[in-house]
Amino acid sequence: MKINNKYKVTPIIGLQWGDEGKGKGVARIASTLSKNDLIVRFQGGNNAGHTIYHKSKCYVFHLIPSAVFGKALMHMGAGMVVDPAALLREAKAIPKSVSFLKRLSISPHTVLTMPTHLILDSISEKNKGSKKIGSTGKGISPAYSDLTARKALRVGDIFYNDFEEKYVALREEHRKVLCEQFDYEISKREVKEFDKKFFSGVRFVKSLRVVESAKIVEEVFGRKHKVIAEGAQGTLLDIRFGHYPYVTSSHTIASGVGTGLGIPPVLVGETIGVLKAYTTKVGEGPFPTELGGKKSAIWCRDKKLIDEKIFYANPNPNSKNEFEQGVALRRAGSEIGATTGRLRRTGWLDIPLVKYAIDINNSTKAILTKLDVLDGFKEIKVCVAYKINGKVVHEIPFNLSRVNIKPVYKSFLGWKGKLHSYGKKLPKQALDYIKYLEKTLGVQIIYVGNGPEEHHVVERFW
Ligand code: GDP
Ligand code: IMO
Ligand code: MG
């Protein structure tokens, strides 16, 4: 495959609110790489859920890069927060026949997520009531908070004799906060169980190659090979440039590659953006193109898939009821959280939002995913602008939650039958949609996803 970024890291970044299909895109690109190339994660933790199908079997990666089934080296970068117990679980779920451990390394700067971070995350979310963010409960915000408070434990610390002592001190500090602020007690038995799992995970981390992220990047560039950075979450979830406070706690954008790996910005090349053919979001926060508006947000917060199936056995994609159309999108796209099992909120593609993401990431190429999910929709809508207080605007406002926003839509005709059945020759209506996106967004769409499995891809431009 052609990547122009010779000796620059190529970021692969979600252009929406996460779950765009980054895992499948990364796995596809990884399948073209050699054993001297490198795939890195540079931020986030196991709040990420990256799904891939390999030989028709489904795998979800949370911490390990989505390149296990390829040949390339894999690295968990300095900007990540890693729960050692979760990492060990994830590694154990990979078939024994796949040799990946020798290819996997981690930075000494990577922050260790502790069991008490997970409890702090869940309990503080619960206490926020209607102001909750809808976090994944994986301890992400407390772990990054400890980093900025300059007391986090990092991978490099595990090699010192006082590691256990430091762990116990921080664990006890967390327990005190839980007790005093939230009236929440962790029993001695629970503490023992947590510690056991944490330290098994730590022993696993010790067995990996521990290397500075910048050093491994330099080694790979020194051998004149490629480095791909697998983004987690999406641009609109970036801690600073997302829809704050409905965001995660790390820099999800291409600039995060620099600080997440400790490499100069000049080494970060053009981004490959991952773009879903419509929009989804998990958790709370504004979502201008959400089908069914507030009703959908509440429904997805309170209901499970099993409840939804009782109300909507066969949702109609062409229903006059927008909420039902949203349900149809969710079902056709299996839009259920890969990490938490929550219903993902669904809506039409939002061009101003994606343009913002493309600009911020310097995305020149894009992977368009899940176009097949629009099979059966006679009309496909795209939000091209917003109406705010009667005025048409083409840019997303600073604070989406504080304005009364109405999407302005443009319609496209759907295609007949299943996209997949057209093979590599996409139907005219799908091509019209793709070409419109390329022109409006100023990117080249290099892959189009027409199903969840690894071979469900239409390659364009090479
Ligand atoms: P990520 O977090 O960005 O890696 O995305 P997720 O794995 O959380 O969610 C994407 C979902 O869409 C997964 O269930 C994938 O298997 C699925 N998927 C990816 N690409 C396609 C596609 O082109 N078509 C369909 N139908 N499903 C896809
Ligand atoms: P991938 O990599 C979608 C969302 C959560 C919540 C907010 C904060 O699979 O695309 P956190 O646990 O990070 O403190 O939650 O961010 N969120 C994601 N949404 N995909 C993800 O990752 C996400 N990771 C976090 O739902 O709204
Ligand atoms: Mg995901």
UniProtKB/TrEMBL annotation:
Mg(2+) binds at D19, G49. Its main location: cytoplasm. It comes from the Bacteria. The active site is at D19, H50. GO terms for cellular component: cytoplasm. Its cofactor is Mg(2+). Substrate binds at A338, T339, T340, G341, R342, L343, R344. Pfam families: Adenylsucc_synt (PF00709). InterPro entries: Adenylosuccin_syn_GTP-bd, Adenylosuccinate_synth_dom1, Adenylosuccinate_synth_dom2, Adenylosuccinate_synth_dom3, Adenylosuccinate_synthetase, P-loop_NTPase. Its EC number is 6.3.4.4. GTP binds at residues 18-24, 49-51, 344, 370-372, 449-451. It catalyses: IMP + L-aspartate + GTP = N(6)-(1,2-dicarboxyethyl)-AMP + GDP + phosphate + 2 H(+). GO terms for molecular function: adenylosuccinate synthase activity; GTP binding; magnesium ion binding. Binds 1 Mg(2+) ion per subunit. Keywords: Cytoplasm, GTP-binding, Ligase, Magnesium, Metal-binding, Nucleotide-binding, Purine biosynthesis. It is found in: Cytoplasm. IMP binds at D19, E20, G21, K22, N47, A48, G49, H50, T136, R150, Q233, T248, R342. GO terms for biological process: 'de novo' AMP biosynthetic process; IMP metabolic process. The keyword Transmembrane helix does not apply. Pathway: Purine metabolism; AMP biosynthesis via de novo pathway; AMP from IMP: step 1/2. Plays an important role in the de novo pathway of purine nucleotide biosynthesis. Catalyzes the first committed step in the biosynthesis of AMP from IMP. PANTHER family: ADENYLOSUCCINATE SYNTHETASE. This is Adenylosuccinate synthetase. It comes from Candidatus Nomurabacteria bacterium RIFCSPLOWO2_01_FULL_39_17. The lineage of its organism: Bacteria, Candidatus Nomuraibacteriota.
